[in-house]
Amino acid sequence: MSSTAAVDDSTGGDGEAAAPPRSRRLTNLSNAAVGIGLVLLVGGFLLAVLEYRPFSVPTDSMAPTVSPGDRVIAQRIDGDEVRRGDVVVFEDPVWGDVSMLKRVIAVGGDTVACCDDEGRLTINGVPVREPYLGGGRASLTEFEATVPEGRLFLLGDNRGTSQDSRMHLADHQGTVPASAVTARMDGTVWPPSRMGFGGHEEAFGVVGPVSAPGPLRWLVVACLSGSVLILGGAAAGPVADRVGRRGTARRSGG
After folding, report:
1. Among 29, 71, 184, 200, which residue's beta carbon has the most beta carbons within 10 A?
2. Any catalytic annotation for residue 61?
3. Do residues 190 and 112 lie in contact, with contact meaning Cβ atoms separated by under 8 Å?
4. Is the per-residue pLDDT at 155 higher than 80?
C-alpha cells in the first residue's frame, strides 16, 4: 500500500478545497450585480450631466410652481423644441443680463389675449384654463399680442408680480427669440419637500401639441437601480464566502 496520501478530487492542484457550486453561483451573481449596477449608476449620472443643468430660482415670479431659492433641473434644448406650456430658462438682453425662468404661453404665429369673460387667456381664440393660477384671472391687465415667427410670448405663473412679456409689448410684441432658450424645466431637486418632476403643462394641449417629459425619470430610476444592485451585490459577496467555507468544512470533516 502506497504511503503517499491520495489527493481528494474536490481539491485543486494547490491542495485547497474548491468552492462548492452554490458558493460559485452566489459569487458570480454578486459580481454580475455589482457590474450591472456600476453601468447603470455611472451611465445614468453621466447622461444626466450631459442632458441637464441646474438652475436656482431667484424670484417668486413663478410661484406656486417654484419658489425663490428652489433648485430646479432643466433639460438642455434648442429653441425649436419649445412648446406652449413649457417652463424655460432663457437669457435676453432686453429683459436683463441674467438667466430667467418663465412659462411659454404662445409661439410664433399665435395670437394671445387676455382676458375672456371667465378671466382666462385665449390663444388663437381658444381659452386655456391654467391650474396653477388657482382660479384667479390670467392677468390683472388686459392685453393682446401676435407672436412673430421664431419668437415666444412668456409669462410668470405669479401674474401679480411677474415682470414678463406684458411689460415689453412695445418691443416685438413682448416676445423673446426662441433661440434665447437654453433649457426646459423637468423637475425640482431642492428643497426635499418640493422635490418632484414637473415643468410641463398639458392644459395647453387644447391649442396644439405640448412637450413630453424629458428622460429625467428614467435616469433617476437607472441611478437608484444601480445603487441597489451595487449594495446588494456587495452584500452577497460575504454570503458567498461563508457558504464556501461551510461547504469546505463539511467535506473536510467527512
Report:
1. 184
2. yes
3. no
4. yes
Task: Categorize the per-residue pLDDT at 91 as very low, low, confident or very high, splitting at 50, 70 and 90.
Answer: very high
Residue 182, classed as helix, strand or coil, is strand
36: burial class by Cβ within 10 Å (0-12, 13-18, 19+)? middle
Tell which phi-psi region holds residue 21, choosing left (phi > 0), alpha (psi between -120 and 50) or beta. alpha
> Which pLDDT value is given to residue 10?
44
Taking the C-alpha atoms of residue 202 and residue 6, their distance in angstroms, rounded to an integer, is 78
Q: Is 214 helix (H, G, I), strand (E, B) or coil?
A: coil
Rg (CA), the chain: 30
Half-sphere exposure of 127 (CA within 13 A, CB side): 10
Q: Which amino acid is at 77?
A: I
Which three three-digit cell numbers place residue 153? 410670448
pLDDT of residue 44: 85
Q: Is 239 left (phi over 0), alpha (psi -120 to 50) or beta?
A: alpha
Tally of residues, the chain: 254
C-alpha cell at 220: 433617476
User: In this structure, what are the phi and psi dihedrals at residue 57, rounded to the nearest 5 degrees?
Assistant: -75, 120
Catalytic residue among 23, 30, 102, 162: 102
Q: Which of 30, 61, 162, 211 is catalytic?
A: 61
